[in-house]
Specification:
The complex is a heterodimer of chains A (375) and B (412). In chain A, the strands form three sheets. Chain A has a six-stranded antiparallel β-sheet. Chain A has a four-stranded antiparallel β-sheet with strand order 5-12-7-10. A two-stranded antiparallel sheet of chain A has the order 2-3. Chain A is α+β, with helices and mostly antiparallel strands and 375 residues long. In chain A, α6 packs antiparallel against α7, α9 runs antiparallel to α10 and α10 packs antiparallel against α11. Chain B has 412 residues and is mainly β. Chain B has a domain of 105 residues: Lipocalin (Beta Barrel), CATH 2.40.128. Helix content of chain B is 5%, strand content 41%. Chain B contains two helices and 33 strands. About 3% of the residues of chain B have low confidence. Classes of the chains: A alpha+beta (375), B mainly beta (412).
């Protein structure tokens, strides 16, 4: 049995030898080429076949533009980039007379949220070149769109409208925009605007930051060795237990609630200033919508993350930046209580900019909408 | 089968041999020979006015607004410029654009989605790494460690996501090492506190030729060309504790030098001479095919800031953190003169004829005449926006990239 991908590769190789792979591609050839592109993998896997396949896909009849866009729905991040550039190349060849009807086809694609956000956004960009009314017609409807890019521009339009409105209307518009905003810069901007108008936007709830934790530490991390040591909380979380921590000192779990608007837990403050130290933060959360979620951590320190006992992330990186959503991992949350454990390790760097021992964590969907019951 | 496996190498070397070295080209960070210098005789205008208040523009042949952000330098192949940039709330859209040298018209633009992390310091950008070319293709590398290969007309040759392959390979201040294309290999340096490595990628197929772990530390230096007379070209990889010389296709380490080296400014080399940003500057000589090197001199008075040293004629020029430009003798390391210029600087200067062209972070450009006993500031002008990219030289003109614009400064 010859596999479909192998047959496609052979067909493409023969085409390349016969015609240089540059002539307009026939229907089956394009489908075969897409299969080859979808199979591109890490470390250059499948590149040689994909190079020929890309030429075939890029030479697809322009009438197949939407069909090509649809293939992005099943593409991984690498294949998506190969396909994207083929789509752009085909779009560049669409004759002027076909552009308007093609824009109408693309509009249907954009409005169909079953397609992946990146493909819809690409379709929107191409269609907007050919239909100058598209942006004004569609953009207001993207305020709560699964595509963060389309949503962002829709929110910006609302912000611009609010800037020209009277105070009462502006406040309403800013509140509507704030509720929809998922990008950090827009959230910050809108929160400031609302505060100036007397409103009190709830940033922790909006982001979905965990504010209340149980903390324990310091354990030893001299020489950064503690990162790989499984201290007792990694075996089993027993918040009533006491342990011998760093330098043999007895340590116990403490309750801690951060007041930071971005959910930052300052461990130097909560547990006492320490270098060469490791701490654990534990929380039990209830999910509003069980299923696959993003667990997004920011930390200036090395971290490990477990959800329901499963290791979801491990970053042995110290003082290389601290950002909201710095590390994003996916986890499966069940109905009822879910257990989240974070290990935060501080090293012994002496520079003034390398003294932070802190983290933040939020749980949300892929767009950035919180999915937890209030913590 | 083995012969077929060699086809990409033969194609790459033939293309490189045919294309590299055209006088009009500026193929990578610090130019085709990687020194920040050109041997071309045609000097761009030494006095030009871009946006200086109260003055009319002078010797600006064209300027265009860029549709994206970025701090990478433009490169030049034939009659075209290639520029990288980013857009999006998280700088997640990666752009490669081509412009005509003659009038600045955009000829094409391609976009890609970042597959790696796009966090970086606000001063920098995900489009920090200067692209490179072998004369037939353009290799665009980004802080997300996405590596794109396009032909000169914007057709995709291949795409690699190096952080997608190595999820811990990232630096949240931003990566910035520019790739180097030599002997049919694209050499990338991905040094960071997570998964730190360097790799040689086949220029034609995008397949990995070799990959070596590197010290897990922050480092922004770029792979540098070392081509001793009578020998094969090697690639220098500088970390903060060591510099190693490698065969670009096999990755084999040929020699190494241990010392405390800079983490931003890169080494510079011509012939068998290598000048390292170590203890000020340190010069060594390494012969073709030899595993040994000989120390020539070390001069602490020639310390570099963020820009790399420029090797031009019989002199080396460095810009330090205090905004002092210093000229040194490459034979002895002796400091020849110092001139104070207004910093801070990120962009490595470019040397043409007897002039050095400098531009600081705030967009103030200085032209320095170097043939006199002391460096003489010939002119000063303002670009009016942030400038972190080194200019590119071609056919008597310099191409400057700012935060928002691209300019061509021509001959008087």
């Amino acid at each position: 049995m010859i596999g479909r991908r192998l047959r496609a590769a052979i067909a493409l190789l023969l085409m390349a030898v016969s015609w240089g792979g540059l002539r307009p591609a026939a229907a089956d050839e394009v489908s075969d080429a897409v299969e080859v592109l979808l199979a591109v993998g890490p470390e250059g896997k499948g590149h040689r076949e994909a190079q020929t396949a890309w030429k075939t896909a890029a030479a697809a009849p322009t009438a197949r533009l939407v069909e090509l866009l649809t293939t992005l729905d099943k593409a991984g991040p690498l294949a998506a980039n190969w396909l994207r550039s083929a789509v752009e190349t085909v779009a560049d060849r669409v004759p002027e007379a076909e552009q308007k009807p093609m824009a109408a086809e693309l509009e249907k694609f954009v409005l169909d949220v079953k397609h992946v956000p990146i493909a819809r956004r690409l379709a929107f960009d191409i269609a907007a070149r050919w239909d100058t009314s598209l942006t004004d017609r569609l953009m207001p409807g993207f305020l709560n769109d699964p595509s963060t890019e389309l949503r962002r521009e829709s929110i910006q339009r609302l912000i611009d409208k609010a800037a020209k409105a009277d105070e009462a209307e502006a406040k309403t518009l800013y509140q509507e925009a704030f509720g929809a905003a998922r990008d950090l810069d827009q959230i910050k901007d809108l929160a400031e605007k609302l505060e100036k108008l007397g409103a009190k936007p709830d940033l922790p709830s909006h982001f979905g930051f965990v504010m209340k934790w149980k903390l324990i530490g310091p354990f030893d991390n001299i020489g950064e060795k503690g990162f790989d040591v499984a201290y007792p909380p990694e075996q089993q979380v027993d918040t009533a237990a006491k342990y011998r921590g760093k330098e043999g000192k007895e340590i116990a779990w403490i309750d801690h609630e951060t007041k930071d608007a971005h959910g930052v837990v300052d461990l130097n403050e909560a547990l006492g200033k320490a270098k060469g130290a490791a701490a654990y933060a534990y929380v039990e959360v209830t999910c509003l919508r069980p299923g696959k979620v993003d667990v997004r951590v920011g930390s200036a320190n090395a971290i490990k993350l477990w959800v329901n006992g499963k290791l979801c992330d491990s970053r042995k990186v110290y003082h290389s930046g601290f950002e909201i959503d710095q590390y994003i991992s996916q986890a499966e949350l069940a109905e009822g209580v879910n257990r989240v454990l974070v290990k935060i390790c501080e090293n012994e760097q002496t520079e003034s900019w390398a003294q932070d021992w802190k983290f933040q964590l939020r749980i949300c969907d892929a767009v950035g909408t919180p999915v937890l019951a209030k913590n | 089968m083995k012969i077929y496996g060699l086809i990409p190498l033969v194609v790459a070397l033939a293309a490189q041999a045919a294309a590299v070295g055209q006088a009009a080209d500026w193929l990578q960070f610090r130019g085709t020979d990687n020194t920040g210098s050109t041997g071309a005789a045609k000097v761009p205008a030494t006095e030009f006015v871009v946006k200086t208040e109260g003055a009319e523009p002078k010797n600006v042949q064209w300027s265009v607004e860029l549709p994206f952000a970025g701090v990478s330098s433009p490169i030049i192949v034939g009659d075209r410029l290639y520029v990288t940039g980013v857009t999006g709330a998280r700088q997640e859209r990666l752009h490669v654009a081509c412009y005509a040298k003659s009038d600045g018209k955009q000829l094409w633009q391609r976009q890609f989605w970042a597959t790696g992390r796009t966090l970086c310091h606000p001063t920098s950008s995900v489009a920090a790494n200067t692209p490179a070319s072998d004369g037939s293709r353009v290799y665009a590398f980004f802080s997300s460690n996405d590596l794109v290969c396009l032909d000169l007309d914007g057709n995709l040759e291949w795409f690699r996501g190096l952080t997608f392959e190595h999820p811990a390979a990232a630096n949240d201040v931003g990566m910035a090492a520019s790739p180097l294309v030599v002997s049919g290999a694209v050499v990338v340096q991905v040094e960071n506190k997570g998964d730190s490595f360097a790799a040689g990628i086949d220029a034609v197929t995008g397949e990995t030729l070799w990959q070596h772990p590197r010290k897990a530390d922050m480092n922004w230096t770029s792979p540098t060309l070392f081509h001793p007379p009578g020998g094969k070209p090697l690639v220098l990889l500088q970390s903060t504790h060591q510099i190693t010389a490698h065969d670009p296709r096999s990755g084999e380490e040929v020699w190494s030098y241990d010392g405390k080296l800079a983490e931003i400014s890169s080494p510079v080399s011509r012939g068998d001479l290598v000048i390292l940003p170590a203890d000020g500057l340190t010069a060594i000589r390494a012969g073709a095919g030899s595993a040994n090197w000989e120390k020539l001199w070390q001069e602490s008075g020639l310390s570099t800031g963020s820009p790399s040293a420029v090797l031009h004629g019989d002199r080396v020029y460095v810009l330090n953190r205090a905004g002092v430009l210093t000229a040194g003798d490459i034979a002895t390391g002796k400091v020849l003169w110092k001139a104070r210029v207004k910093g801070p600087y990120w962009a490595t200067p470019v040397a043409v004829g007897e002039y050095l062209y400098l531009v600081n972070q705030d967009g103030a450009a200085h032209v320095i005449k170097t043939s006199v006993e002391k460096g003489e500031i010939v002119s000063e002008t303002e670009f009016g926006e942030q400038m972190l990219a080194s200019p590119a030289y071609s056919d008597g003109a310099l191409y400057f990239r700012g935060a928002k614009h691209l300019w061509k400064i021509g001959s008087p």
